[in-house]
Amino acid sequence: MKNSIEEAIAKVNKRIEAACQRAGRKPEEITLIAVTKTFPAETVKQAYQAGLRVFGENRPQELRDKAQVLPPDIEWHFIGHLQTNKIKYVVPRAVLIHSVDSIHLARALEQFAEKRALKIPILLEVNTSGESSKFGFKPTEVLEAFKTIKEFNHLQIKGLMTIGPLTDNERKIRQAFRQLYQLREELLRSFESFTLPYLSMGMSGDFEIAIEEGSTHIRIGTAIFGARGR
Question: In this structure, what are the phi and psi dihedrals at residue 124, rounded to the nearest 5 degrees?
Fold first, then answer.
């Protein structure tokens, strides 16, 4: 198992390098987040021993439990849908919450952070595919959402996140990622004091397209760990 994880990471890194070369980018611009949803801590440890330090978790309790037993220098990202009653499991452990998908959640995070004098780095999740199964702001809502959330003193908006459409149609996938890039450009033009360095987009099936369209953070589970259980 360990060797297979090492080999899988090496293959993913080669694909990242090739995609960067095509896009005229540097591999150092890309943060590889190994997604550990449903995988036990022991499996995560094998990826850690293979050199990975950045991991992503979709489920609040799994993040809490794994963070308690895995090395403290792991950088945890929370990438799943977050309910307000689970914030307490995520905020103390995640260096970045990718999935702020509503004003309601942002306000709850602000209140949680204010009580504890914390600053929480976040991304705004955008539903660029229009699929009803996905969470996130509609593209037309992003500007107003940003205006509201940027006033929260304890949240730091670092960029945007999206999940590509569930399709083999490369044009549609590329379109969804390009739209996120363009939304960020619009925000930067409208709010010049912000930098918004992060675009979190791309998973095992589409991360090369995401890199070509400007992604800075790719979220890779299956291509490293294999098919997951429930």
Answer: -90, 125
Beta carbons within 8 Å of 106's beta carbon, 6+ residues apart:
100, 122, 145, 148, 149, 152, 155
**Domain 2-225 annotated CATH 3.20.20.10:** yes
Q: At 82, which amino acid appears?
A: L
pTM of the predicted model, to two decimals?
Answer: 0.96
Task: Tally Cβ neighbours within 10 Å of residue 37.
Answer: 18
pLDDT in tens, 71-118: 999 999 999 999 999 999 999 999 999 999 999 999 999 999 999 999
- How many angstroms separate the CA atoms of 84 and 89, rounded? 10
pLDDT digits (tens, 9 = 90+) for 170-202: 999 999 999 999 999 999 999 999 999 999 999
**Residues forming a β-bridge with 53:** none
Helices in 50-206 by DSSP H: which ranges?
60-69, 87-90, 103-116, 142-149, 170-190
Instruction: Tell me how far apart the alpha carbons of residues 223 and 14 are, in angstroms, rounded to a whole number.
Output: 12
What is the identity of the amino acid at 204? S
Looking up tokens 């952070």, which residue turns up? 113
- Token pair, residue 114, equals 């204010």
Enter the tokens of residue 163.
């999940």
Reduce the DSSP state of residue 94 to 3 states and report it: strand
Model confidence at 229, pLDDT cuts 50, 70, 90, reads low
